[in-house]
Every structure is written in C-alpha cells, then in structure tokens.
Design brief:
This protein is of the alpha/beta class. 39% of the residues lie in helices and 21% in strands. Among the domains are: 42 residues, no CATH class; 113 residues, Alpha-Beta Complex (Lambda Exonuclease, Chain A). The structure holds iron/sulfur cluster.
C-alpha cells in the first residue's frame, strides 16, 4: 500500500522521492512562499553484513560498590476516590477490581448490546438486571434508556425547570435521541415520574430551603489521596446539612428500603466529606429519593459511628488498592453483574475452565 502511494520500483537500488516543496519564508517582516525542487535518494540495502565489534574495557571493579538487591516497591499515592468507586469497593473489592482495573463492565455491556441488536437466540447466562440500575455505578454501563432517563431527570432537577415546561422540554430532548416507537413510551414514563415528584410533599419540602446547592461538587484531601463526590442537592440551614440523592431506578414501593441500603455507602461517603467541609456543629442528614416514590424518602442521620466506619473503610480501600489485594464478598453475588445464573462469580468460573 505504501509502495502504491510512492509509485516506486523496489527492484532498483534506490528509492527516489522528488518533487516541488513550498516553503514559507520570512523576509523583511513579511512572509512569502518559496518553491524549491527537492530530490531524496534512499539506498536499498538488501544484505546486511554482521559486524562483530568488540569493545575493550578494563574489568569493572565492583568490590567497593554497594549492591541493593531488595525488591523495589511501587508506592502509589494521590489516588482520587469517588463516591461510586467507594460504594463498589464496599460492596465487593473484587467487583471493584473487575470494573475499574480490568474494565470488564464495558465488555459485558457491549456483549449485551450485541445480543440485543443482532437478535441472536443465545441464552443469557449472566445476571444482567444490574444494567438497568444505578447500583451499577459506572453510568457508561447502564442500558441506553436507563442512562438517558437518569441523565435527563437529573438535568431537569438541577435546572429547577418549572412543571409547565416539562412536556415540551422532555419531548424535544427525546426527539433528538430516539425513534418514534421508543419516543412515546419513554416520554410518558419520564413525565409520569417527574409529575409525581413535582406534586409531592417531598418536593415542597426540598424547595422550602433558601440556601441550597444543586450538583454540588465536594473535594477533600486526606493524607496522600483525594476524595470527591457530586451531590445532587445540598440543603443548608443553621442546624442541618441535608444531602439529597435522586434515584431514577424503576422499582416498586416494597423495594425502596432494600435498594436504598445498597446506595447507603455512597451517601455516607458524601456525608463524610461534607462533615469536613462545613461547620461540625450542624447535623448531617441524607435523603435518598426515588423519583418514582417521592412520598417515601429514605432518610438517615450521619453520626460519629458512621464517621469512624467510613474513615476506616476508606483507609482499608486505599491499602487494598496500593497492595493490589482484592478480597471477595460472596454475600453480594446475587445482585452482581459478574455472577452467573447460579450466583457464581465469573472469576471462579474462569478459574475452573483453566484448571
Ligand atoms: S460475583 Fe460476587 S465475588 Fe464476584 S465480583 Fe460480584 S460480588 Fe464479588
């Protein structure tokens, strides 16, 4: 291909490249073009003689040298730990390793998409329910609709869009992204959830605070690493700091407590950062609000025991990452994307196939 472009006869002794090249030349503070003929001859060498070249040196005296034969350890520092990473690690350290170090989440998502688009009749033998849940914390791995729905609702709430403007706004956004078949069902799903939320007592409560931050980015330096999180909303008054986290999971009312428990490490991680950025005398409260069920917010108070637990969990996480040591939590396999239909971890299945 290269030769076709160069149009050379490679049976000759030389490759000749020639033509006119235009240079930009500066003359009396002005630039002008200068055309020059250029010819390059590159000899083709077909036989390479091996020449042994011995270099004579005096023998090296190592008697006075200090030999350091210890293992050189790679000491990493300055890690940036996000709330979602902390939450994943808290669920199962191995899951963290597979997701963030081996990037297997992308691979699974792509195979899921491929099966859907190619309509192959292959039985799915891994747990893929998690793909439609925000529990699967890397957004890029969510199914397209869940991701779109989540992002759009978060955007609308961040911008404090008024109730009357919702239908037009949602329709416009959907039209730019999906075809008509999907449009109607997704539009009514998003609008129904939003109307429910806008009409709720919870919505009124959140809007009763004059001091608030939407999409509040919180950063904290701890020892030699950093913690960070983006809070959907932070409400502030003299006595309280209220961390609000919106969730767009498609769940039933009975599932609220169980699913909220799984989001709890993430919220406590936010609370840990906020407790160090604001006045310690304020009480910190967390509210996980499922937009579909605004009448039942999951509320918790962040206390000193939580604070100590989160601190030691963060330290454990940093220690594990730095030592590349990821334990397993078999209690979390039922809901994990890396478990098969028997709740067996992908890792143990791979190991069995190797042995
Ligand atoms: S399947 Fe179980 S052990 Fe494997 S990564 Fe998931 S939670 Fe951890």
């Amino acid at each position: 291909m290269i030769n076709e472009g160069l149009q050379q006869d490679l049976t000759q002794d030389n490759i000749i490249l020639e033509g006119e090249l235009v240079f930009l030349q500066k003359e009396n503070n002005a630039y002008k073009n200068l055309t020059k003929s250029i010819k390059l001859e590159i000899p083709i060498i077909r036989n390479i003689e091996s020449i042994e070249k011995l270099i004579e040196t005096n023998e090296i005296d190592i008697s006075n040298k200090k030999l350091i034969l210890n293992e050189i350890k790679d000491q990493s520092k300055g890690e940036v730990i996000s709330a979602t990473r902390f939450s994943t690690f808290s669920t199962c350290p191995l899951k963290y390793n597979l997701l963030y170090n081996f990037k297997l989440g992308d691979l699974i998502q792509q195979s899921y998409r491929f099966r859907n688009t190619s309509q192959l009749n292959i039985e799915e033998d891994y747990n893929r329910n998690e793909l439609s849940s925000y529990l699967f914390d890397d957004e890029s791995n969510l199914t397209e609709y869940s991701k779109f729905k989540g992002q759009l609702i978060h955007y609308i709430l961040r911008k404090n869009l008024s109730r009357e403007n919702l239908p037009v706004f949602v329709e416009e956004k959907l039209e730019n992204n999906f075809d008509e078949n999907i449009l109607e069902s997704l539009k009514s799903e998003i609008l129904n959830d939003l109307f429910l939320f806008y009409d709720s007592e919870e919505f009124k409560f959140l809007n009763s605070f004059s001091d608030y931050r939407n999409e509040f980015e919180a950063y904290l330096k701890e020892e030699d690493f950093y913690l960070f999180g983006i809070l959907d909303k932070l409400l502030i008054d003299d006595e309280n700091l209220i961390i609000v986290d919106y969730k767009t999971d498609n769940i039933s009312k009975n599932e609220i407590n169980a699913i909220a428990q799984k989001y709890l490490p993430q919220l406590k991680f936010y609370a840990y950062i906020i407790s160090r950025l604001f006045n310690k005398r304020q009480q910190i409260e967390g509210r996980i609000i499922f937009v579909k069920h605004p009448e039942k917010p999951f509320i918790f108070n962040f206390d000193e025991i939580d604070d100590r637990n989160i601190k030691s969990s963060i330290k454990l996480m940093i220690h594990s990452i730095r030592n590349n040591n990821y334990s397993v939590n078999l209690n979390a396999c039922d809901d994990c994307i890396f478990a098969d239909e028997n709740s067996q971890c992908i890792k143990s299945r791979v190991m069995q196939n190797i042995n």
